[in-house]
Write a structure and sequence with these properties.
The protein has a domain at about 10-65. The protein is built from five helices and two strands. It is an alpha+beta fold and about 160 residues long. The chain has a two-stranded antiparallel ribbon with strand order 1-2. It is elongated.
């Protein structure tokens, strides 16, 4: 059996005869032929094919918005929940935790201390403020300075310090 490959124009003609010259998704008319795309009713990512029964004419934007949504059993499309990831500066500021006035959220705590108000320990764990010192007196193991904090001098691992290596 020889299979003939249809051109874009032939596909559009067949689909127009079947569904009309309107977007299958929004019902709007096409202004130009370049606005026409082929929507795979069952998306290719979900096993859909290029078979003419699986194709619908759609605007570029409508097709992009549909994406790979699977149609419902009754032939309708489920509503896509739009998730906004944008947050204004005011929203971001309102989500910040309150600053503990006693320990500055752990920044003023020494080793093995905890705050009785906010219950936090020394923060940040990797470069605590209590261990910060100047570069001349820094041992680059228990304490840290600008040089080991910025990676200019490599800090010794704790195991080497404990074992005296």
């Amino acid at each position: 059996m020889t299979r003939t490959i249809m051109t874009r124009a032939e596909r559009i003609e067949l689909l127009t005869a079947r569904d009309g010259f309107n977007c299958f998704l929004c019902g709007g008319e096409f202004k130009e032929e370049v606005d026409i795309t082929f929507d795979h009713w069952i998306p290719q990512s979900r096993g859909g094919s290029w078979d003419i029964d699986n194709l619908r004419l759609a605007h570029k934007r409508c097709n992009a918005l549909k994406g790979d949504i699977m149609p419902n059993e009754d032939g309708t499309l489920p509503k896509r929940v739009r998730v906004s990831t944008f947050k204004s500066k005011a929203q971001k500021r309102s989500e910040r935790p309150d600053l503990c006035q006693k320990c500055e959220n752990g920044r003023s705590l020494g080793p093995q201390e905890s705050c009785d108000v906010c219950k936090s320990g020394p923060m940040p764990e990797r470069w605590p403020r209590w261990a910060k010192t100047d570069a001349k007196s820094c041992d680059h193991a228990d304490f840290w300075c600008w040089a080991c904090g910025s990676g200019v001098i490599e800090r010794k691992p704790v195991t080497q310090t404990l074992l005296g290596m």
